[in-house]
Amino acid sequence: MPGTPMSVAYDADRWIHIPLDYVDTPWADAGEWSGWLADEATRGRPDADALRDAVAAEALAIALFPAAHVSLRFWHYPSDGAPTGFMDVFVQARDDDGTAPADLLPDPGFTVVPPVVEPVEAEAMPTAVRRLSIQATLPSPDAEPVIVPKAEWIGAADGWVVYAVSTDFDVNQLESRLADADALFAAVDPAEAAAR
After folding, report:
1. Cβ atoms within 10 A of the Cβ of 112, count?
2. Spatial CA neighbour of 155 closest among 79, 96, 109, 68
3. What is the number of other CB atoms lying within 10 angstroms of the CB of residue 50?
4. In this structure, what DSSP letter does residue 103 have?
5. Burial class (CB in 10 A: 0-12, 13-18, 19+), 183
6. Which of 30, 177, 187, 194 qualifies as a cystine partner to 63, CB 3.0-4.6 A?
7. Cα atoms in the 13 Å half-sphere on the side-chain side of 144
8. Residue spans per domain, the chain
9. Chain centre to alpha carbon of residue 89
10. Distance CA 188, CA 5 (A)
11. Distance CA 93, CA 77 (A)
């Protein structure tokens, strides 16, 4: 099921916007888009031939990752550094019943240490928060636990809730994009969804 359609101003030197469908775009599908992106991202680099296939494969994997209810998806690909993981943004209409955004966060599941919830600055969502957690998940019943660092953001305004999430298997990778992710979340304005 598609998410609430909307757009957000983002820093193109830090993030790549990932299409969630290809209607009214220059690309027929995720495969065509990922090939185009790999060409653009590696053009002019001396190691372009060695990098292109890897960039295309990673872009395709992110584009094809399940996206039910996702409104926006961004790949952290800073122009002055190495690409890391991606961030999904969900926007949903919700009557304001006075519930604090922190209380709308989903159950964190089993965590290795208690999650840390802190306020974040977001002009359009004055009571927004970010939760950092380290989850332990079981890929299968007989598998060893896998550690998954996770960052979540949530805020509400004007009858809309904005929830964003980014996970990784490497806590350093997640930490490396937190500041950029904070800025991206802060740029989301629920009023933009309301106007559609």
Report:
1. 12
2. 96
3. 10
4. G
5. middle
6. 30
7. 1
8. 18-65, 70-194
9. 6
10. 12
11. 30
**Phi then psi for 90, rounded to 5 degrees?**
-115, 135
One of 3.40.1130, 3.30.420, 3.40.1000, 1.10.1040 is the CATH number of 70-194, namely 3.40.1000
* Residue with tokens 């509400």, as numbered in its chain: 156
Mean pLDDT of 153-175: 93
Instruction: Identify the residue whose tokens are 């926006």.
Output: 72
> What residue has token string 């802060």?
186
- Amino acid residing at 189: D
pLDDT given at position 193: 64
Contact at 8 Å (CB) between 184 and 15? yes
User: For tokens 């101003």, what's the residue?
Assistant: 9
Mean pLDDT of 49-77: 93
pTM of the model as a whole: 0.91
Tell the residue number behind the tokens 């999430």, with chain if given. 165
